[in-house]
Amino acid sequence: MSTHSGATGVAQAPPQAQQRAGRRAKAPLSEGARAERRLGWLLCAPAVIVMLAVTAYPIGYAIWLSLQRYDLRFPADRHFIGLTNYATVLTSSLWWTAFGVTLFITVVSVAVELVLGMGLAMMMRWALVGRAALRTAILVPYGIVTVVAAYSWQYAWTPGTGYLANLLPSGNAPLTQQWPAIFIIIGAEIWKTTPFMALLLLAGLALVPEELLKAAKVDGASAWQRFTQVMLPLMKPAILVALLFRTLDAFRIFDNIFILTAGANNTRSVSILGYDNLFTALNLGIGSAISVLIFVAVAIIAFVFVKGFGTAAPGQEVERR
Amino acid sequence: MNRNPRAKTLWGITDIIVIIVALVPVLWLASLSFKDPGTIADGSFLPHKWTLDNYRGIFQTSLFTRALVNSIGIALIATALAVVVGSMAAYAVARLRFPGKGLLIGAALLIAMFPPISLVSPLFNLWRQLGLFDTWPGLIIPYLTFSLPLTIYTLSAFFREIPWDLERAAKVDGATPIQAFLRVIAPLAAPGMVTTAILVFIFCWNDFVFAISLTSTLNSRTVPAAIAFFTGASQFQTPIGSIAAAGVVITIPIVIFVFIFQRRIVAGLTSGAVKG
Q: Are A265 and A174 in contact (CB under 8 A)?
């Protein structure tokens, strides 16, 4: 049973199991295998149907909408215009500003989270005291509703009201200036999602055997050498998965910006821009074109990670036992 | 590892710093929620004058109470559906041999990466045509979809760990298949399902993108979306107190989950995502 992995996995099957599998492939399917197949499909069918119906179909529909002039304020004037919406978006400085802001937020927050997350993971593994307290405390930022946390940061940085804003020289309203606001957004993002990064890295850290680190120490490796030469190579798959997930997640940033600045002063992310075009400008055509472009950008990021860095996607793992 | 008291103190100090950083924003919001409207903008971290008026205020408006009912109902239904549909698929992935399994896992991964905002414009239009706009199912359906990848990964990782041979052993001992399932397998599977349910609930509870895009009234607006439209319980009140109080109310279940289930949440988050 457990030696078979999906189409993508490389099963580390014991030899006799491989032989068994080889024989099965040649022989016609037994009644039992066929029943197992049917049951497998039947059990997966609801999940597959829901997932396809709510993503594949709508994204196709979004592509169709993006090729039309479709402004809800002028619904009668709806017609096919080819790639004009894409040209409009891609030649607009609004899109490129939002794209730049999104990339900046993504790169900075993921980089900082990787460093902090690694530190937290090590604390959770090796701290002499308070590991359970640590784990409980960091799950609070993970679990809290992003919008609620964003309000907390917003009020903290509001002049007069907030404990953080009052640390600044008076007359500063950081959320109303582009760069200070972007850094506050990044800070809120880091606070909220570092725990998730840390937990994924902790799972990777669990794969580093204590004896190996001790042996390296006996051989005279410094702490830094043990970290770069022993831990990092073993943790690489876990690090890449964590980076992939967090990069994609950060690129979709929406909630924090919506609450903290609502996209004012050029702090829009691409998701905020898409939302504004849809619900403020009521332009379904342009909004859909932005949706499709975000989808393409996310697909490119995922592709780069999987093909470029060889990130193994979760679920494709060798089945254990 | 040295175990001298100095190392312990250093670890202790680092622990405390991390814990403070993790909790301060939450405590700040709680402090705001207890501040009297007159002193809410005084910039002090702790309230000078404590009051429960903010809480009284929000529970007197249907804007908040309806949103709370919507949030709870929608998150619970979506969680239950996700766990049922996800368990079926996860059982198949963990236990059965069938062609297309790799495809299913790949598709689930794609959806885990899908940008929700890309679905907002087509779903907004589709839901208006299908009459699902601003209804509970209108939110439950996308929540179910986006929690399925998480459910399938986490549950299949848990299911793989179950010693299924016990089931056969129970049958040999004379148990009927249903008895074998209920007495032997279900208790072993339950912890994994509870963990998954918590993670899915947190996800649904947290959502904002769909909640503001696919709702327009009290019919289905959930708390995160409703908060963004707060104007204050009365004209004499700033919304800061109300928003803070509402934020604290919807943070309470999360804090309870974290305290009771922290081990399970950690296990669930890491099981599906990283190879063992």
A: no
